[in-house]
Amino acid sequence: MIKKYIIAWFGLPFVGIFNGTTRNLTYQKIVGEQPAHRISPLSAIVLIALYVWLISRRWKSRSAGALEHKEQP
């Protein structure tokens, strides 16, 4: 299971590149460079949260209750 999540980490640079490209091609032209650099972390948080949500829906992990009841060796 941990291998899947390590692999998922490699998608995060693409999220960052997408965020920066979107900033440069869209709202930076409207609001200017400094405000765009202030907005960009907020859009990055939203994009990362969306990415993590999509990954977690695709690769469902066991619930905490199911993990607690798992027999120990």
Short summary of the structure?
Helix 2 runs antiparallel to helix 4. This protein has five helices and no strands.
Output the keywords.
5 helices, elongated
Description:
By secondary structure, the protein is an all-alpha fold. The protein has a domain at 36-60. It is built from 5 helices and no strands. Helix 2 runs antiparallel to helix 4.
**Whole-Å distance between the termini?**
19 Å
Mean pLDDT: 86
Helical element count? 5
- Tell me the β content: under 5%
Could you outline the blueprint of secondary structure elements for this entry?
Blueprint: H1 2-9, H2 12-25, H3 27-31, H4 33-58, H5 64-68
Helix pairs in contact: 2-4
